[in-house]
């Protein structure tokens, strides 16, 4: 899997977390086409490395963010004065 596929996966995961539609870890694995253990690895990466405020809600049966959060990866044009 190349970097663009991984970014697409993260954006899709972010959308499902924001809309509380991930389902259980096993269901999320199926939606993303990965193993359940990979889901746990990704969630751990988000929590530890990127400090994402993500948790699993039994009430929603979905991963959720604490607060208003969105994953962003983008390029921006900077004017010459900011370099």
Please provide a written account of the structure:
The chain has one domain: Arc Repressor Mutant, subunit A (Orthogonal Bundle), CATH 1.10.10. A hairpin with a 4-residue loop joins strand 1 (54-57) and strand 2. It is built from three helices and two strands; from the N terminus they run H-H-H-E-E. It is mainly alpha-helical. The longest helix has 16 residues, at 3-18. The mean pLDDT is 92. Helix 2 packs across helix 3 (36-48). The N and C termini lie far apart (34 Å).
Feature tags:
mainly alpha; two-stranded antiparallel sheet
CATH fold name: Arc Repressor Mutant, subunit A
- The arrangement of helices and strands along the chain is HHHEE
Low-pLDDT residue intervals, each spanning 5 or more residues:
none
- Class derived from helix and strand content: mainly alpha
Helix content: 40-55%
Write the CATH architecture name. Orthogonal Bundle
Percent strand equals 5-15%
Instruction: Give the end-to-end Cα distance, rounded to a whole number of Å.
Output: 34 Å
Q: Domains counted in the coordinates: how many?
A: 1
Strand order of the largest sheet: 1-2
> What would the average pLDDT be, to the nearest integer?
92
How many E-type strands?
2
User: Which CATH first-tier class would you pick?
Assistant: Mainly Alpha
- Largest sheet composition: 2 strands, antiparallel
């Amino acid at each position: 899997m190349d970097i663009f596929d991984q970014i697409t996966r993260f954006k899709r995961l972010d959308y499902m977390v924001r809309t509380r539609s991930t389902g259980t870890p096993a269901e999320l694995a199926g939606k993303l086409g990965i193993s359940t253990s990979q889901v746990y690895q990704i969630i751990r990466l988000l929590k530890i490395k990127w400090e994402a405020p993500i948790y699993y809600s039994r009430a929603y049966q979905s991963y959720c963010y604490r607060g208003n959060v969105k994953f962003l990866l983008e390029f921006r044009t900077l004017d010459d004065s900011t370099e």
